[in-house]
Design brief:
Order of helices and strands: EHEEEHEHEEEE
CATH superfamily of the largest domain: 2,3-Dihydroxybiphenyl 1,2-Dioxygenase, domain 1
CATH architecture of the largest domain: Roll
Largest sheet: 5 strands, mixed
Pfam family, one: Glyoxalase
GO molecular function, one term: lyase activity
Helix content: 10-25%
Strand content: 25-35%
Structural class: alpha+beta
Radius of gyration: 16 Å
Keywords: Lyase
CATH class of the largest domain: Alpha Beta
Protein name: Lactoylglutathione lyase
Organism: Rhodanobacter soli
Oligomer: single chain
């Protein structure tokens, strides 16, 4: 089995969250979805499990963070710079909040941050590794 990541997110309104994630390019895997959870697929290796608050509480007693707080920012790469803007526009039109952090344009990398309807933070980014200035590449001297 290949290495995969399953990001689990508590959501207040499962149907609205499914709609939001579908709108920005995720696909629903019905095999792992029911009335308490939805498996949303970004790629073969990346899946997001949207869990109702009741379902979330079956996994942990830790509190669900209040609206407006952030525990993580999940970054997802897109194949072209224009796709970052398109995802942000789509997110805004489907219940998300965009540009919650300043837009970053470094020439070789472009990113915009958005929050889903429950406030989970995502950073959509595009990067051209060949355009990174040589002094800025990690591991290069």
């Amino acid at each position: 089995m290949p290495r995969m990541i399953f990001v689990n997110l508590p959501v207040g309104h499962l149907d609205a969250s499914i709609h939001f994630y579908k709108s920005i390019g995720f696909e629903n895997n019905a095999q792992f979805s029911d009335e308490t959870a939805a498996c949303m697929v970004w790629s073969e290796a990346i899946h997001v499990m949207l869990l109702t608050h009741a379902k979330w509480r079956t996994f942990t007693d830790r509190p669900i963070p209040p609206a407006g707080s952030s525990e993580v920012m999940l970054a997802i790469s897109l194949i072209e710079r224009e796709a970052v803007d398109a995802m942000s526009d789509t997110a805004a039109a489907n219940g998300g909040t965009v540009d919650i952090n300043p837009v970053q344009d470094l020439g070789f990398m472009y990113s915009r941050s958005l929050a889903d309807p429950d406030g989970h933070v995502w950073e959509a980014f595009w990067m051209d590794p060949a355009a990174i200035p040589s002094g800025d590449q990690p591991g290069r001297e």
